[in-house]
Write a structure and sequence with these properties.
This protein is α+β, with helices and mostly antiparallel strands. The chain folds into 2 domains: 154 residues, no CATH class; 78 residues, no CATH class. The chain contains 6 helices and 7 strands. It has a 5-stranded mixed beta sheet with strand order 3-4-5-6-7, with no helix packed on it. Strands 1-2 form a two-stranded antiparallel ribbon. A hairpin with a 2-residue loop joins strand 1 and strand 2. The radius of gyration is 28 Å and the shape is rod-shaped. The chain starts with a helix and ends in a 6-residue tail after the last helix.
């Protein structure tokens, strides 16, 4: 692990460090994996703060205003004069609707604006506008046990799931983005090899392209972590700087590979070129 971390840091100033991992495609895969984990850290912190704020400011306050309710014989009962309860987040998002007098099949389209709808016979989420039809979960599926505490626990569980899903998504996008960007530098590498009049196995060339992507990728993610994660605010001139940086790293790495092979050939005339 330490070897890969050293290569990552050296990639900013020493293209020779590429030669330490380029001999094995597994090394390049691990390198891309570690870089993706590293670039996901700022976003992980950002998402963690957002999720905790939602939990503290939006979910926990529900307990203070929620009516007492329970499930008896697989039917919802509200221990209050009002048999309908509505709750909105501070930003106006319609989060929760509880209606103990209406069955889920009787629900009107107007109710679908709420994220969670709790009816006499089931809990319903989703709506047609979001591209996902209503999904019902009957109280029988929950073992016939459901109350206001269960609701808050369920909401916390959903937030936890959302957190890990978003983090995985960020990591996967960073990893795939690095590999796809490497394809661009791979094509540029073909041009550099032609200019240098030197041959290089394509697997080694792609490994070089992944290595060349590392400095610009890390710099890009670090900048985004300070200015926010809206990719559209990045100016074309900044993107061009990243591209030129990666291409320069690519050219230097190809030259280092060429020099290494020429030295090996000089020291051992029988070695393959």
């Amino acid at each position: 692990m330490l070897k890969y971390i050293k290569v990552i840091f050296k990639s900013f100033y020493d293209s020779k460090s590429f030669l330490e991992v380029s001999r094995n495609r597994y090394n390049i895969f691990v390198l891309a994996l570690i870089v993706s984990i590293f670039t996901s850290i700022p976003k992980t912190v950002f998402v963690d703060i957002k999720i905790k704020n939602i939990s503290r400011n939006e979910i926990e306050p529900i307990l203070k205003v929620l009516p007492e309710f329970s499930v008896k014989d697989n039917a919802l009962e509200i221990k209050d004069e009002k048999q309908r309860f509505e709750y909105k987040f501070s930003d106006g998002t319609e989060f929760l609707l509880i209606d103990s007098e209406k069955n889920s099949k009787e629900a009107v389209q107007e109710d679908e604006k709420y994220i969670f709808r709790i009816y006499k016979d089931a809990i319903v989420t989703g709506n047609k506008d979001a591209g996902l039809g209503p999904q019902a979960l009957t109280y029988n599926m929950l073992g016939g046990v459901f109350n206001e505490k269960s609701l808050v626990d369920f909401a916390h569980g959903m937030l936890t799931f959302l957190f890990y899903f978003i983090i995985f998504l960020f990591f996967a996008l960073d990893f795939l983005g690095l590999l796809l960007a490497s394809l661009i530098y791979f094509l540029a590498g073909l041009l550099f090899l032609k200019m240098l009049k030197f041959g290089m196995p394509k697997k080694n060339l792609y490994s070089t392209a992944v290595f060349a992507s590392v400095p610009a990728t890390i710099a890009d993610k670090m900048v985004l972590s300070f200015i926010g994660f809206d990719f559209f605010i990045i100016k074309p001139s900044v993107i061009l700087c990243y591209l030129l940086w990666a291409l320069l790293t690519m050219r230097k790495a190809v030259e280092e590979y060429k020099n290494q092979k020429q030295n090996e050939t000089r020291d051992n005339p029988d070695a393959e070129k």
